[in-house]
């Protein structure tokens, strides 16, 4: 039994990491192969993590934050399928569990969550090339137990992004200008 875990697709398989078995937080990880309909255990994570953030990023699987049974964590680790080993990555700025993860502009984002005292609105992003976390624009609302996704091709994308931000889409870089206002709107 496993609750409060996270799953992520990677190399045609579904990986699941961490969670809670009703008695303790887990450090185990496994994957499901839909071709063979089999679950396979992989090397256990370095830390127990319930409410963990899990996401595939640049050929590896990342397990971030979570609750280890004592405290909310700001640590993270990456699983390399080639070496079958977990390696620690730099710590996030904010400890968190039950948060969203997503990849945007080749950066791994950790969004919101619970820090052990309160629900948070903080957002930070990780660049695997620089092996470094950066502060990102925080949300305007406190959110925990949330999800995030990337939606491409929104016709009203200007309503959701920073104005005059450079957007990289496929091989095209463009600058998104603010919508024009008419005299009636001013």
TrEMBL record:
Matches recorded under SUPFAM superfamilies: Kelch motif
UniProt keywords, alphabetically: Kelch repeat, Repeat
Keyword Ubl conjugation included in the entry's annotation: no
Keyword Repeat set for record: yes
One Pfam family from the record: Kelch_1
Highest taxon above the source species: Eukaryota
Protein name as it appears in the record: Kelch-like protein 10
Species whose genome carries this gene: Plakobranchus ocellatus
